[in-house]
Design a protein that fits this description.
This protein has 227 residues and is an alpha+beta fold. The chain has 3 domains: 2-80, Roll (Ubiquitin-like (UB roll)); 93-182, Orthogonal Bundle (Fumarate Reductase Iron-sulfur Protein, Chain B, domain 2); 187-221, no CATH class. The chain is 39% helix and 12% strand. The chain has a 5-stranded mixed sheet with strand order 2-1-5-3-4. A hairpin with a 6-residue loop joins strand 3 (51-56) and strand 4. The relative contact order is 0.11. The mean pLDDT is 95. The structure holds iron/sulfur cluster (2 copies) and FE2/S2 (inorganic) cluster (FES). Residues 40-43, 45-50, 66-68 line the site of FE2/S2 (inorganic) cluster.
Length: 227
């Protein structure tokens, strides 16, 4: 039977299970009978809860992936990392200044980075973690924010780091500083907020709230869309 032929062996906590080859690691674990309570969140590659380390039989390389996004391979030996502890500083972003010393004061270990690149190899988002850490060492907050924009806080970089860096927590500090203090402000946005606060749209909103559903649908379909 085609379906039977499509079964492949994988190893979860060292125990063999035969699972359909089309499944993601997460679905294969559920197929094997596991009820996932930790190590699962969005199921869509965004939350970083399902970090997985794996090896393939007879292949010495260590692989990294998200269980909800990675399709199983034959003879895959899985190690789930639902949480990896790393230093997480507490701060009030409104009391900080967007300058290099802020990064170094809150995370002095930044300067311990060896530039080995192990973190980059581990990142399931294919971020150049080494480079954003190098930017952090230079105190370049905007560059750290830019290079780490797609970080999902999975912790795999920290799990592999020989210098014990909390890369993703350093990166989110940089993104917070950038967002609050450095990102260019949109004049149009501010203008529209002012207009809303002055009540320019109050009457129109009241009219919309009093409009029946069919008329709202017609209005929605007829709306102007900027090219
Ligand atoms: S693994 Fe650690 S020491 Fe190596 S480049 Fe990344 S942050 Fe630096
Ligand atoms: S930078 Fe680190 S925490 Fe962020 S997605 Fe990559 S491996 Fe995960
Ligand atoms: S469950 Fe959220 S990234 Fe996999």
């Amino acid at each position: 039977m085609a379906e039977q032929n499509d079964q492949i062996p994988i190893y979860i906590m060292g125990k063999r299970y035969d699972v359909p080859s089309s499944l993601t690691i997460m679905k294969a674990m559920e197929y094997a009978g596991y009820t996932l309570i930790r190590g699962v969140g969005c199921r869509g590659g965004f939350c970083g809860a399902c970090s997985t380390v794996y090896r393939i039989q007879d292949d010495p390389k260590l692989y990294f992936g998200l269980a909800c996004q990675t399709v199983v391979k034959p003879n895959m030996y899985l190690g789930q990392i639902p949480f990896f502890p790393a230093k997480r500083a507490t701060y009030d972003i409104t009391e900080l200044q967007a300058q290099a010393t802020t990064l170094f004061q809150i995370y002095p270990e930044i300067l311990r980075c060896l530039g080995c690149g192990t973190c980059t190899k581990a990142c399931p988002q294919e971020l150049n973690v080494k480079n954003y850490m190098a930017a952090a060492m230079r105190g370049d907050i905007a560059m750290v924010a830019n290079l780490s924009f797609d970080c999902i806080m999975c912790g795999l970089c920290a799990a592999r780091c020989p210098a014990e860096e909390p890369q993703y927590n350093i990166a989110i500090l940089a993104r917070r500083l950038y967002g609050r203090y450095l990102a260019p402000r949109s004049e149009h946005l501010q203008q529209r907020v002012d207009e809303i606060q002055q009540g320019m749209f109050d009457q129109k909103l009241a009219e919309l709230k009093a409009t029946d559903e069919q008329s709202l649908i017609a209005l929605y379909k007829a709306r102007l869309i900027e090219e």
